[in-house]
Amino acid sequence: QVQLVESGGGLVQAGGSLRLSCAASGRTFSSYVLGWFRQAPGKEREFVAAISRRGINTYYADSVKGRFTISRDNAKNTVYLQMNSVKPEDTAVYYCAADQRVGSYNTQQYAYWGQGTQVTVSS
Q1: Which pLDDT band holds residue 121 (cuts at 50, 70, 90)?
Q2: pLDDT by residue (tens digit) across 5-45?
Q3: Could you write out the DSSP letters of every residue in 36-82?
């Protein structure tokens, strides 16, 4: 029903910036709550950010608040994660996720997930 494809990952120096994109299929994109998650080697997948259907409300993990910004363009069926002042601890595979309803924005139970894009932050 929904296919999500992340892009924009790569190697970036600590203190630099990177913007991730997630393109979605379908004509009902605006009905989905969207989230970004990440998973570092040997660690559990963790919540990063989420955004409401019309982009009015946003939510962030404490570890990224003030540095990352989530946004969406419903006309382009795309959600973004702007990553500023990146740190080596931000190194992970980043996933976007979508669901028509969630119990909480940081839930691990979003219905649809992308394949992930690697972000590596060097010192």
Answers
A1: very high
A2: 999 999 999 999 999 999 999 778 899 999 999 999 999 99
A3: EEEE-TTS--EEEEEE-TTS--EEE-TTTTTTEEEEEEGGGTEEEEE
Q: Which two tokens stand for residue 16?
A: 């630099």
SS3 state of residue 88: helix
DSSP-assigned letter for residue 110 = -
> Distance (Å, rounded) from C-alpha 24 to C-alpha 34?
10
Euclidean distance between CA atoms 85 and 66, whole angstroms: 9
- For residue range 36-70, list pLDDT tens digits in order: 999 999 999 999 999 999 999 999 999 999 999 99
Instruction: Show Cβ contacts of residue 28 under 8 Å, excluding neighbours closer than 6 positions.
Output: none
Burial 1-31 (b: 16+ CB within 10 A, else e): ebebebebbeebeeeeebebbbbbeeeebee
Distance CA 18, CA 71 (A): 14
Helix (H) or strand (E) holding 5, with range, is strand 4-7
